[in-house]
């Protein structure tokens, strides 16, 4: 272990050899590097290169090769910071680009481990322009549907951060690392102003959604393996509609998604009841102990939260101040790989869904399309943020952009209407090839109280409005907006799940059905599936 300088100089950081040794399966590393061809610039530069090689034991600032992580084959492009601060010159850029293109040709996942001061100033603009070349190779790799993962090490700055280090499908960062556009010394010299102590910390970037997780070197192997378990299982290396899960459902759906419900039932379950009181459904979905997204994700495996997503610890109303209203994640749902985009009702007790949350949902849709993973949305919201700030930032256009992105994404989509479905915030996540609803879930343009105010100028008629607006899951099924209505176990408020065993069984059943629908959607011909998604809302009938 060596100690690096910088703002986190007290933190011991592993040498690249140690990092690779802890990350890769034993005995699987294969180096791809050949002797570099350096540009002939000056005798002084040649001496700098020789000293850098002697001090670091490396021949350049980039090392490439391949290995396995948990049995998954992965190509690696890693910075050797001990070689001239990991700076990227022409030879290093050529090495990185060749490795990326080799990974693309061999259809391998790619892992970048940058730790660099950026462009090698010794070589000037020609080296600077190589950031375009490396980024172009990354773009080709992503366009092939292959996963690109990044681990930002201390320090990662300059042209490296402004190009290939910021293009990952999933980005992890070393806690306490310096991660910024320009190093603080250069910024202060050029602007006369010192940056704040947290301006270039990965912790700050995590809160902004620019880093997906802070991961120590000791945790890196498990974190990378968790992601690869999902993206490898999702057929990321295959064209849409031809990955694992293709035609692996016992029996196809009754017709294309949207033309009729899938014939899937929960073993031993009773039929959903169509005569339940709509107002009692509203109350049931608002109950503090109502299971939500957190319980749903608890039955998934290999979950990796994306962006600024956070799940709070508490579930009691009024006590949980953490978490984000919309959570996005990679996950295996009952063994089925997907990107989950879900509304966390517990977080919404404290903060409603805002523009940034909807933008995060759209970003997750784009990641799913890049990785060719199906999408599962989970709807459970009392509504979007209602404030002057929300209006200024464009809450309505953000809703429109989100639903338009889901309507047109090329990957399979399944939506679960889990509880409350209030207004545009619910509509934003509704477009899907298949829509599943809990029998006490509901969807309305306003909460019943809001509809009462419009009609009667008070909230006293909320129950009557709920009963007259056709908001229930069965109403939605009759309209053609919902394909499957799943029962809830007896007990609780008007039939809601009550005991811990009820909750676990109900959520597990929902997850099993959602996973089956995801697999069925993957198995459909992509053109047929997209056409059916486009047409389903034209066919809604009262």
Q: What's a concise summary of this model?
A:
The chain is of the alpha/beta class. 38% of the residues lie in helices and 16% in strands.
Description of the molecule:
The protein has 19 helices and 18 strands. With 542 residues, it is of the alpha/beta class. The chain has two domains: 232 residues, 2-enoyl-CoA Hydratase, Chain A, domain 1; 256 residues, 2-enoyl-CoA Hydratase, Chain A, domain 1, CATH 3.90.226. A seven-stranded mixed β-sheet has the order 3-4-5-6-7-9-11. A hairpin with an 8-residue loop joins strand 1 and strand 2. The longest helix has 24 residues. The radius of gyration is 26 Å and the shape is elongated. The N terminus is likely disordered.
Mean pLDDT: 87
Percent of residues in beta strands: 15-25%
What is the number of helices? 19
CA(first)-CA(last) distance: 68 Å
Main structural class: alpha/beta
Largest sheet: 7 strands, mixed
At the first level of CATH, what is the class of the largest domain?
Answer: Alpha Beta
CA radius of gyration: 26 Å
Please state how the strands of the largest beta sheet are arranged side by side. 3-4-5-6-7-9-11
Fourth-level CATH superfamily of the largest domain: 2-enoyl-CoA Hydratase, Chain A, domain 1
What's the helical proportion of residues?
25-40%
Number of strands: 18
At the third CATH level, what is the topology name of the largest domain? Answer: 2-enoyl-CoA Hydratase, Chain A, domain 1
Counting structural domains, the number is 2
Which overall shape is indicated by the principal axes computed on the Cα atoms?
elongated
CATH architecture designation of the largest domain? Alpha-Beta Complex
Low-confidence stretches: 1-9, 234-270, 315-320
């Amino acid at each position: 272990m060596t100690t690096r300088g910088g703002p986190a100089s007290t933190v011991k950081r592993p040498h690249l050899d140690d990092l690779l040794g802890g990350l890769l399966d034993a005995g699987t590393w294969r180096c791809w590097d050949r002797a570099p061809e350096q540009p002939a610039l000056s005798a002084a530069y040649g001496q700098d290169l020789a000293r850098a090689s002697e001090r670091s034991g490396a021949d350049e600032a980039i090392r490439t090769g391949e290995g396995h992580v948990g049995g998954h084959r992965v190509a690696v492009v890693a910075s050797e910071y001990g070689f001239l601060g990991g700076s990227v010159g022409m030879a290093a850029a050529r090495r990185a680009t060749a490795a990326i293109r080799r990974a693309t040709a061999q259809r391998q996942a790619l892992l970048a481990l940058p730790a660099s001061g950026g462009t090698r100033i010794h070589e000037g603009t020609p080296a600077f322009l190589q950031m375009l070349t490396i980024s172009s190779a990354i773009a080709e790799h992503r366009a092939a549907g292959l996963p690109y993962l990044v681990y930002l090490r201390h320090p990662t700055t300059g042209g490296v951060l402004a190009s290939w280090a910021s293009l990952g499908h999933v980005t992890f960062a070393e806690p306490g690392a310096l991660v910024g556009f320009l190093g603080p010394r250069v910024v202060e010299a050029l602007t006369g102003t010192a940056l704040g102590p947290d301006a270039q910390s990965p912790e700050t970037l995590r809160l902004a959604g620019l880093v997906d997780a802070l991961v120590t070197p000791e945790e890196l192997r498990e974190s990378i393996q968790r992601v690869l378990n999902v993206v490898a299982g999702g057929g990321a290396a295959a064209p849409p509609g031809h990955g694992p899960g293709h035609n692996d459902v016992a029996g196809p759906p009754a017709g294309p998604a949207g033309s009729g419900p899938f014939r899937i039932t929960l073993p031993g379950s009773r039929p959903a009841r169509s005569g339940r009181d709509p107002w009692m459904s509203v109350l049931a979905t608002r109950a503090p102990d109502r299971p939500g997204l957190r319980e749903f994700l608890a039955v998934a495996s290999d979950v990796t939260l994306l962006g600024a997503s956070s799940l709070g610890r508490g579930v009691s109303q009024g006590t949980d101040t953490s978490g984000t209203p919309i959570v996005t994640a990679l996950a295996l749902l009952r063994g089925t790989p997907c990107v989950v985009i879900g509304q966390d009702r517990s977080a919404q007790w404290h903060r409603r869904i805002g523009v940034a949350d909807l933008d995060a949902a759209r970003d997750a849709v784009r990641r799913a399309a890049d990785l060719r993973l199906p999408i599962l949305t989970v709807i459970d919201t009392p509504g979007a943020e209602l404030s002057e700030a929300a209006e200024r930032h464009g809450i309505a256009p953000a809703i429109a952009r989100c639903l338009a992105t889901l309507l047109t994404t090329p990957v399979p989509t399944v939506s679960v209407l889990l509880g409350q479905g209030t207004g545009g915030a619910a509509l934003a996540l509704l477009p899907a090839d298949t829509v599943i609803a809990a029998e006490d879930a509901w969807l309305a343009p306003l909460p019943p109280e809001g509809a009462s105010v419009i009609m009667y100028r008070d909230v006293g008629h909320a129950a009557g409005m709920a009963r007259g607006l056709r908001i229930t899951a069965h109403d939605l099924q009759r309209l053609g907006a919902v394909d499957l209505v799943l029962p809830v176990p007896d007990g609780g408020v008007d039939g809601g799940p009550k005991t811990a065993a009820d909750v676990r069984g109900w959520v597990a059943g929902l997850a099993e059905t959602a996973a089956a629908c995801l697999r069925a959607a993957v198995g459909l011909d992509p053109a047929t599936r997209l056409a059916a998604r486009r047409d389903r809302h034209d066919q809604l009938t009262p």
